[in-house]
Amino acid sequence: MNNECRRKVYIVDGSRTPQLKSRGKVGPFSAGDLAVGAARPLLLRHNFPLEDLDEVILGCMMPGEREANVGRVVALRLGIPQSVTAWTVQRNCASGMQSVDSAYKNIRNGDADLILAGGTESMSHAPVMFNHTMVNWLGDMMKSRSIGQKVSNILKLRAKHFKPVISLLLGLTDDTVGLNMGETAEIIAQKFNITRRQMDEFAVNSHHRLAASARAGLLDEIEVLYDEKGNYYDFDDGVRTDSSVESLARLRPAFDRKYGKVTAGNSAQITDGAAWLLLASEDAVNKYNLPVVASIADTQWAGLDPSVMGMGPVHAMTPIMQRNQLAIDDIDYWEINEAFAAQVLACIQAWQQDEYCQKYLGLDNAMGKIPYEKLNIDGGGVSLGHPVGASGARIILHLCKVLQRTNTKQGMASLCIGGGQGGAVLIQNESTTEAEAA
After folding, report:
1. Residues in Cβ contact with 73 at an 8 Å cutoff, skipping those fewer than 6 apart
2. Which position among 347, 357, 400, 416 bears the catalytic label?
3. Could you give the angle at which helices 181-191 and 341-350 cross, rounded to 10 degrees?
4. Host H or E run for residue 381
5. Which of 106, 113, 151, 426 is the most exposed place for a label (fewest CB within 10 A)?
């Protein structure tokens, strides 16, 4: 489609749950619960009939066992009419960003006017499964008819039948290269000579930034959750206000015990959370008198070697910068998901290196340095956590909030994706655009 035929796409509003750290037990909310909890107050804030939604798109990597096509399950639980279609998308760490991009393109191309898009993940609910030996035994047991056959099968049970399959661990491992995500971060740290202290300092700053922003009331996108026991959850509970480089230095490497630098302290936390955005065309904005938070200017996906998947952001952001003729100084704020401190630090370094930019990004020279004071100013995955299906939507939502409160014009949201991909979205603050036009 020609650019002249493309319509402008607005972000009307958004909300998210607090991000709740997994503590080795099943958390209070399923992926569907989280998504419903974040979406209900968002929809109640706006005066349009729910049947006028064109569709609901929800990113999720590991929906619960009773939540097949969790997007549809959530839509029906929210009271959205059955006539409104809903679907679930999975692009690993960028599932939430993919849902927003899908909504953006459907509205831009004239196929929709009003879409609810977001992401959810309850990592504490990731299934623990039977292994194939046990599944085969259960199959034989179900076929048993006589008491003798059943007793015979029971006597075949061995310890190996009870070895669990931890889906979360497998999901965070790239099968094509045989590396889990932490091991890919170690490769990147080695490649860019990033020290353990640099990682730990980055992690500490992430915690301190999140804590300061929470104290200042700057996280108003959070909706309070209530569980079945009457408990409430109103803040990102993985934050460590007392985090220090000295305390993190005492942690052992998590993925390379002998030589590694990546620890649990300088990596994203295993977390439950959900985030939504309401996207609309200009026609829908005018028809329903909707507010406008921002607009989506451009999006990009990129593929790269899975063993260095953490470099995905620079591979996705670079084409956007080129297409829109942008320099680093043209971007007011950046949100780069903190899967690992090493990975964000490496992306910053890569854009400063002529060799990397020429060899891998097709540039003539280095792009330049992203100012740290403009990057993840309210913390990121290290302190907030990284609920895989939700993070892409969360960083877009929060970037919109940052641009609004600072009255700045343009921001970039990006993340790396397990399996060797990167995603990026260019956001423009419409309130500053309107002011300039006036």
Report:
1. 32, 67
2. 416
3. 40
4. helix 381-384
5. 151
Contact between residue 328 and residue 388 where contact means Cβ atoms under 8 Å apart: no
Q: What architecture is domain 3-126+268-437? A: 3-Layer(aba) Sandwich (3.40)
Q: Report CA 230 to chain centroid distance, whole Å.
A: 28
As a whole number of angstroms, the distance between CA 397 and CA 223 comes to 13
CA distance 396 to 437: 25
Closest CA to 214 of 392, 384, 30, 388: 384
**Total residue length of the chain:** 438
Report the Cα–Cα distance between both ends of the chain, in Å, rounded.
31
Integer Cα distance of 344 and 372 in angstroms? 11
Convert the pLDDT of each residue in 34-76 to its tens digit: 999 999 999 999 999 999 999 999 999 989 888 999 999 999 9
- Judge whether 93 counts as a catalytic residue: yes
Computed over its alpha carbons, how large is the radius of gyration of the chain?
A: 23
9, 283 Cβ separation under 8 angstroms: no
* pLDDT tens-digit series, residues 128-162: 888 999 889 899 889 999 999 999 989 999 999 98
Residue type, 345: L
CB 341 within 8 A of CB 196: no
Nearest to 306 by CA among 168, 191, 184, 183: 184
Which burial class, exposed, middle or buried, applies to 147 when counting CB atoms under 10 A from its CB (0-12, 13-18, 19+)? exposed
Annotated active-site residue in 5, 60, 93, 400: 93
pTM of this structure = 0.94
